[in-house]
Amino acid sequence: ASAIADDGTLDVHIQNQRLNKNARPNELEFLPGMGTIFFDPNGIELLYRVGGFGDNLFRAQLMNLLKLSFLGMLSVVCAATLSFPVACLVVFTVFSAGSIGPFLATSVAEYSIRTDSEILKGFEALVRTIAGATEFSVRAFGEAQGNGPVVEGRLVSWNDVGRTFVMIGVGWSGVLLVLGYLSFRRKELAIYSGQGG
């Protein structure tokens, strides 16, 4: 990090060259490189160490715990208002849709049917609407990824954990808490006195 200037910039010079083995002794002479250098379309990334693996793993697992707590809250609310099989189906569907959310967003952006048929264009619009609405509704769940950055050796920051806590832990789970409270409030629970008869 000491090579980074005060304004946050870093100058990097990349040269495609090789050493001339036939140069005079004690002289460095460079020749054009034998190969070609290709760069990713997104450019070059410079990564530097900002912390340890254990702390990063802890933050990633906190994000996973927040996502699991939301799924637990969703399952309790669905089981209280619907039946158990429907609750399982809803939770598995939300988990699956949330997990593939980033891939679904890319698919929706790239999806198109090249045709002049109005029926197929209508079908395309219907698919885009349903898939786009699904992706939008679970976007925060899909973006809260702690495992991917840990595997790639990238930082899972406290900002990421805080954003997940506010959006999923408080926002989504809070709405489910209110819905569950309203649902349970209307139910009559039996009181067992222990007096069989």
Q: In angstroms, what separates the terminal alpha carbons?
A: 78 Å
The largest sheet, given as strand count, sense and whether it forms a barrel, is:
2 strands, antiparallel
SS summary, helix count: 7
Mean pLDDT: 83
Low-pLDDT sequence parts: none
How is this structure best described in words?
The structure is a single chain. The protein has a domain at 53-185. The protein contains 7 helices and 2 strands; from the N terminus they run E-E-H-H-H-H-H-H-H. It is elongated. The longest helix is centred in the middle third of the chain and has 29 residues, at 53-81. The protein has a two-stranded antiparallel ribbon. The chain has helices at residues 53-81, 84-99, 101-110, 118-137, 139-143, 147-152, 158-185; strands at residues 17-19, 30-32. By secondary structure, the chain is mainly alpha-helical.
Summed up:
This protein is mainly α and 197 residues long. It is built from 7 helices and 2 strands.
Furnish the topology, listing elements before pairings.
Layout: E1 17-19, E2 30-32, H1 53-81, H2 84-99, H3 101-110, H4 118-137, H5 139-143, H6 147-152, H7 158-185
Antiparallel strand pairs: 1-2
What tags apply to this protein structure?
197 residues, 58% helix, elongated, mainly alpha
